[in-house]
Amino acid sequence: MAGASTFPTVFVAGSGFMGSAIAFLVASKTSASVQIYDISEAQLAKAEATIDKFGKSSVEKGFLNADQLADLKKRIHTTQSDKLAAHCDIVIEAIAENLAIKKDLFKRLDNICKKETIFASNTSSLPITTLAASTKRSRQFIGMHFFSPAHVMKLVELIPGFDTSDETLTKVKKFGEELGKTLICSKDFPGFITTRLGLVLINEAAFALMEGLSSADEIDTGMKLGYNHPMGPLALADFIGLDVCLHILETLQEGFGDPKYRPCPVIKQLVAAGHLGKKTGKGFYEYGG
Question: Cys-Cys link to 157, which of 48, 135, 145, 261 (CB 3.0-4.6 A)?
Answer without folding.
Answer: 145
